[in-house]
Write a structure and sequence with these properties.
Strand order of the largest sheet: 3-2-4-5-6
Distance between the termini: 15 Å
Strand content: 15-25%
């Protein structure tokens, strides 16, 4: 179902803004001129984060004593960027001994486990700092405490009933934290901790005889991790992402990030938030999905272009391998799903790759508009690891918690967010869990929730379907989760079609506008819904700027296509 967003009152926005942009802003709740600036001075102050003063004190003490600080990271893009930001930021602030450990997805699982704590101890840690994990790591923190190793947790995931006995916890979603933005990614939380640490060191006279670092130099990594983790782009996160994009476009990104862009064939001067989420993020994530995230972190930490290019090449190769694995698993999963009538869909195949099941769940969820959990066999015998994706109306972690409460012992462990979560369970328990998960989804989702709704910003007049509009929308970002890129709807006549790609899965259209004139439109993976020349189509689409050999032209990207 296609539904137009309520337009809202845009009278408080400047008249000089492009009229399409004014309408799009108002439809997203941005109606005042004072809410437009995305400058760093508009960031929420660090003081609002519970535990941040204690965190800054712990880190300052460790730096002044020159203790070894070890970062406990994670194997996704948020965890990798947060690890790199922590290492680079602490070194810039005077820490001479900073190292990191990151769990292997296949042998250790997520978070600060006792085994990961042992790795940190083996590196001589005097302070252990988690990034993008830790809020549920009761056993890992207990192991560190038993060894006399203090732990600082920086995380953004939802807390459970019990908090770890850490020396300090910084997490906007922990009980009692009044920070206005609950949507910081893990990398954003670590960036805030660095801001508070710099202020504490400044007050202590630490920079009297040394230059004070510009932490804004880390914002390219903060932007990448924030977008790749698909957290809501509220005003605070939009500032972080916009500032990071500005650094990248100006050629001031980290060598590793520049090398990843080059490997992907992207021009940095026109990079946008979509490139962070769909081009850079997958290449970084490929290391953690197929092998070990260390190569991804080392790419982000690379100090020169030569080493960065080598590491980026490895990541690009891993990403191509990941795409091949995902394509096969996706086709198998869709075949399984076709015979599955559940509302909460659980899928499993003995040959599936553990690191790719989350992507498969996402693809099937998009196709069925149902919550989906895809399972693969873990390295541990008799155990399955599942990764789930949800739809609006179902908080996935809460649904798993309800299943766990109704069936104690069925799930070994679980965690995550509203829209994405993971779990581990015995293979023998899969059928029972599948039935319980389906029942929970049926109880929480009504018929309306199960009907996919494509929200649009209405139709564009012929005069608005123009390159100038595309440029205005491009420059107005960042768009993303919770602040979606504008989508439009309309009816067009098909003038020409052309299949692209090695397998012909992508279709390029030439469309005639209602008032005359033509526009190019791309339908990625659109071969199954091809409409031949002479037909008429109803579209939901985005518009962008196509750049080729120095020339710019308007291009549509088709979201939904239906023959009239």
């Amino acid at each position: 179902m296609v539904r137009r967003r309520p337009q809202g009152d845009h009278g408080g926005l400047p008249e000089q803004l492009h009229p399409v942009l004014r309408r799009a802003y108002a439809a997203r709740g941005l109606t005042r001129a004072e809410d437009l600036p995305l400058e760093l001075r508009a960031l929420l102050p660090p003081a609002g984060l519970r535990g941040i003063d204690a965190a800054a004190e712990l880190l300052m003490t460790a730096i002044l004593a020159q203790e070894r600080i070890v970062i406990a990271g994670d194997y996704d893009a948020d965890g990798a960027t947060a690890t790199a930001v922590a290492v680079l930021g602490l070194r810039a602030l005077g820490a001479e001994q900073v190292d990191y450990v990151v769990p292997n997805r296949f042998t250790m699982g997520y978070g600060l486990s006792p085994a990961l704590t042992e790795m940190a101890l083996a590196k001589g840690a005097g302070l252990l700092v988690t990034v993008d994990n830790g809020i549920a790591s009761l056993a890992g923190v207990a192991a560190a405490n038993a060894a006399g190793l203090p732990v600082l947790i920086t995380d953004h995931h939802l807390a459970g009933d019990e908090l770890p006995a850490a020396a300090a916890i910084v997490n906007p979603n922990q009980p009692g934290c009044g920070f206005a933005s609950k949507h910081l990614a893990g990398v954003g939380v670590m960036f805030y901790v660095l801001l508070a640490l710099r202020a504490r060191l400044r007050a202590a006279g630490h920079f009297a005889e040394r230059s004070e670092p510009n932490l804004a130099e880390l914002l390219d990594l903060v932007a990448l991790g924030t977008v790749a983790d698909v957290v809501k782009l509220d005003h605070n996160n939009r500032i972080l992402v916009a500032q990071g994009l500005a650094r990248i476009r100006a050629g001031r990104a980290r060598p590793g990030l520049q090398a990843l862009l080059q490997a992907a064939g992207r021009v940095q001067t026109h990079i946008n938030s979509g490139d962070l989420g769909f081009v850079l993020g997958p290449r970084l994530n490929a290391a953690g999905r197929l092998e070990d995230m260390t190569v991804g972190i080392e790419c982000l930490l690379a100090a020169n272009a030569e080493s960065a290019r080598t590491l980026a090449g490895q990541l690009d190769s891993l990403n191509r391998e990941r795409r091949d694995i995902e394509a096969q698993m996706r086709d198998e999963a869709l075949e399984l799903a076709a015979a599955n009538s559940a509302v909460g869909v659980c899928l499993f195949d003995a040959g599936w790759h553990e690191g790719v099941v989350g992507l498969v769940a996402s693809r099937v969820k998009d196709r069925l508009h149902r919550p989906v959990i895809a399972f693969a066999r873990a390295t541990e015998d008799g155990v399955l690891k599942g990764s789930g994706r949800s739809i609006g109306g179902l908080h996935l972690r809460d649904a798993m918690a309800a299943v766990d409460a109704h069936h104690p012992g069925l799930i070994v462990r679980f965690g995550g967010h509203a829209m994405a979560a993971g779990l581990t369970l015995p293979e023998a328990a899969l059928e029972k869990f599948s039935q319980a998960f389906d029942a929970e989804c049926r109880a929480r989702l009504d018929a309306d929730a199960l009907e996919e709704v494509l929200e649009t910003d209405g139709e564009l007049q012929d005069a608005e379907l123009h390159l100038d509009t595309a440029r205005a929308l491009e420059q107005a970002g960042p768009w993303g989760q919770g602040f979606p890129e504008p989508r439009f709807e309309g009816h067009f006549e098909v003038v020409e079609t052309r299949a692209l790609g090695a397998d012909g899965r992508h279709i390029k259209y030439r469309l005639r506008l209602p008032g005359g004139g033509h526009v190019e439109a791309m339908d990625f993976n659109g071969a199954e819904r091809l409409v031949e020349r002479g037909g008429s189509v109803s579209l939901v689409y985005c518009i962008g700027v196509n750049r080729f050999r120095g020339a710019e032209s308007l291009e549509m990207r088709i979201i939904d296509l239906r023959s009239q």
